[in-house]
Amino acid sequence: MSTATRDLAGLTARMAEIAPGLRVETGPGATGPYAYDASNYRVLPWAVAFPRTADDVVAVLRACSEAGVPVTARGGGTSMAGNAVGLGVVLDFSRHMNRILDIDPEARTARVETGVVLDALRGATALHGLDFGPDPSSHSRCTLGGMIGNDACGNRSVRDGRTSGHVEALEIVTADGVRAVADRSGLHPVDPQDAGLVARLEADVRRLIADNLEPIRTELGRIPRQVSGYQLHRLLPENGFDMARALVGTEGTCAVVTAATVRLVATAQASALLTLGYDDVVDAAEDVPEILRFSPSAVEGMDEAIVATMRARRGPDSVTGLPEGRAWLYVELEGEDQAAVDGRAAELLDVLKAQGRLTGGRVVESPAERRSLWRVREDGAGLAARLVDGGESWPGWEDAAVAPENLAAYLRDFRKLLTSHGLTGVLYGHFGAGCVHVRVDFDPATDTGRAVMRRFLSEAATLVVSHGGTLSGEHGDGRARSELLEVMYSHRMIRTFAAFKRIFDPDGLLNPGVIVDPAPLDADLALRELPLLDTSFTFPHDTDGFTGAVRRCVGIGRCRSDSGGVMCPSYRATGEENDSTRGRARMLQEMVRGEAVQDGWRSTEVKDALDLCLSCKACSSDCPVGVDMATYKAEFLHQHYKGRLRPRSHYSLGWLPRTSALAGYAARPVNLLLRGPLGRLLARLGGVTTKRRIPAFASRRALRKTLRAAKSPGPAKALLFVDSFTRAFRPQVAGAASRVLADAGIPCTPRDGLCCGLTWVSTGQLSVARRIMARTVAHLDDGDDRPIIVAEPSCAAALKRDVPELLGTEAAQRVADRVHTFTGALTDLAEQGWTPPPLPEDVVLQTHCHEYATFKGRRPADLLRRLGVRTVDEAEGCCGLAGNFGFEAEHYDTSMAVADLALKPRLDALDGRPVVADGFSCATQIDHLAGDRSIRALHLAELLDPAADQPGETS
After folding, report:
1. pLDDT for 188-239, tens place per residue?
2. pLDDT tens for residues 107-121?
3. 575 - beta bridge partners?
4. Nearest residue to 163 via CA among 176, 183, 145, 182
5. What is the mean pLDDT of residues 654-673?
6. Number of CB atoms found within 10 A of residue 786's CB
7. Minimal CA–CA distance to 683: which of 927, 884, 921, 878?
8. How far apart are CA 865 and CA 867, in angstroms?
């Protein structure tokens, strides 16, 4: 046993002794995902602890203090500066210390644990007409603790400023395990026995401030976004020795914050959003001073690269409402009276038009357009990381700020600096506060690229200081900029920062290498040149193949959101970092790197990380950088089990298209057998859960009857691809689809006997999948260019994306280009003026995840509304069954937990409304959840079937 292993064992034993029940994880499978945040850095910790109480935090800090082990506090892990990674022990506050302890509507305050996600707090305070002012773009997953650590701001910082301005008190634990409360007037012990220690600590701080009044007054607090360094001006006599706000922005280097009391603001009663177009970002910045005269709540900017990437990734309709231009500002005005706000918006637009820099401008009236536009801005960091042209960009200089009136001049000089180093940058950010986020196309993987990066950052620091600015405006200094603080501050101020940290953390154990005694900015960079791997999938959108594909994840963390979109269902069910898209991507990066994870494709740690991935593909659409974990998992399973015995379910469920075809010849006896004890035995032998009823197989006779009836009497305009699930379990859907399509002016010829290969892909049997797909492509690419319409969304998605990416042939791409879902066919191909039979006013809808992810802008909900359904109550999220996943015995509980998130609540409140679910797995899950209730999910074709007396009746 190595010394390090013995030390780690002793440390974990000591923590268990002091805090029985504290969960501490070690080993690469646990620590790998925590080696990264959203920055350029990788620092593998010894262990990760998941405290439930402040006493647990005390135990960790005392044990680490005794052993001389560093500690890094972590919230959502969305730091772009590298201040949420570190050696020693990482404290993950987001897992358990995420409670809202109190909301006082009259005092307009809230007391929260620091692992609370901002959106959770905002949702709770909204019930009282209140909000927490700072709103970073990561609001759906960032924690209050992280915001306090960085002194975060957000999109409405023009109105609400920084987090520090909203903090009333912090409950902290010092490096040696003493609990105290820092408030607006000083520091107070939690335990009276610690009164002497806390008093001495406060006295030392007061002496430090008294000895350094002149540099603190002249160097700190000069501009609104001056976050770099420590905010020691908060401790000046004229500021009341505000210890709470002085500790905000210390990035976990002085104390660990366990809870906070924060001030709330009233929710605005009226608002207006203007979108303003410009030729470039400098022109946009020139107009900011004039805009600020109108007291906006937000002035946000971005350039054309972000918009182009959003449209490429999520469809042209994902960004609407922007005027002509190559750069844009969003300007939000708020007030108590809508008419007055609208008047201010109109006046501002007139003033800006007179200025002569606008290429266009408009007030955005539609709430849907507003949501769409804000999402583009909020996803800026991820969209800028991997652009539509395949280019990659990185943080490092993503947070500089100047006074707003100096922004245009700074940006003009900054772009010259980029050009002089042969670099380009994607710009976006808080223009109204003078804070611009830039992701630059550094090459941090090579020695040459790192040298260029270092020179550029040093010169950029000099540049921003020459414009009166700050290195960091809200992300903190972290590992990215702490080394550069000497460019911004005097030697005396640097020494004062160091003295302040020593008072709180004399041994330098809290987040070492950040702000004080900084690590070199090019140390511990995550990126380096890595080997290219031979794979079955071609990964056509990633120049480095699988290596480049898994590198897409840069830690933005949208997959850790609890709401909005579909990604990531397993994280939403378990709350574990390792079960998020990001956690899995980081483990795959560790595998490719070959250091902590050394057994490559055979890694059990990586297999375990991928185990609860439902292969829903939602990340390929929802993730701003387009991570496609379903494809990565399929590739890994293929390589992991190559030449080895596979899990039983890979045979029983992966080969379902073949076994179901055989079952169709004797459907009745097979169904009877599967309903009895022998069926349950077969399920157990096949690794299939016995808690579900196996769907009944349809007979070949029923299929033949349906297909004969499905043939259109006249010339067919399209092919109706009869997939394996429709063929085996619900041939009536093929009949209904054929009738609806004919009624809509798209008569079809059914095409049976072919398979998309999906079940072999999802179980990682890619050699078999390639053979199946090649046969299908050979039959479909026969000179016929008619559209291919697929009733089953998952099979349509496989033909559209998996087939060309696995086969990599022109023929496969030609077939993919012809594929439509049933919804897509009615949206794009139906005759002008077609109207369906009368439809119900209200429906409940479960959209298949693969349809959601692959067929952008062609959603069943939109079609239903266009066809006259008044209310579409969509279960936003995965159904939980996800093909083979929910049938596998070991995944049943997770499958049901995912269903509980969105689908089950809709079914429990159904009240007679029809349920629409085109996906066979979605319909199967609905049937299972329904139990004895008479609920049957309809395919959209059944709802629209002109031959049905009532919607959903079979003819």
Report:
1. 999 999 999 999 999 999 999 999 999 999 999 999 999 999 999 999 999 9
2. 999 999 999 999 999
3. none
4. 145
5. 95
6. 14
7. 884
8. 5
Residues of 314-335 as b/e, b for ≥16 C-beta within 10 angstroms? Answer: beeebbebbeebbbbbbbbbbb
Average pLDDT score over residue span 611-632: 96
Question: Distance (Å, rounded) from C-alpha 707 to C-alpha 792?
Answer: 16
Could you write out the DSSP letters of every residue in 777-813?
HHHH-SS--S-EEESSHHHHHIIIIIHHHHH--HHHH
Assess contact for 112 and 260: CB atoms under 8 A: yes
C-alpha dihedral (424, 428, 431, 435), degrees to nearest 10: -70
Q: What is the predicted pLDDT for the residue at 950?
A: 66
Instruction: Give the C-alpha distances (Å, rounded to integers) separating 616 from 628, 874, 900, 919.
Output: 9, 17, 16, 12
Q: List CB contacts of 661: < 8 A, sequence separation 6 or more.
A: 724, 727, 728
**Which helix (H) or strand (E) segment is 151 a member of?**
none
415, pLDDT greater than 60: yes
Give CA–CA dist 925/572, Å, rounded. Answer: 18
Show the tokens assigned to 494.
């640097």
Tokens of 720: 């109706």
Q: Report the 10 Å Cβ neighbour count for 389.
A: 9
d(CA 777, CA 774): 5
878/850 Cα distance (integer angstroms): 10
The token pair that represents 655 in the structure block: 């080969």
Integer Cα distance of 166 and 151 in angstroms: 10
Task: Quote the CA–CA distance of 888 and 687 in Å, as a whole number.
Answer: 6
CB 97 within 8 A of CB 50: no
Q: What is the pTM of this model?
A: 0.94
Rounded to whole angstroms, the Cα distance separating 163 from 482 reads 20
Is 720 within 8 Å of 825 (Cβ atoms)?
A: no
C-alpha to C-alpha distance for 800 and 814, rounded to whole angstroms: 10
Can you spell out the DSSP letters for 335-359? ES-HHHHHHHHHHHHHHHHHHT--S
pLDDT at 315: 74
CB 140 within 8 A of CB 229: no
φ, ψ at 50 (rounded to 5°): -120, 80
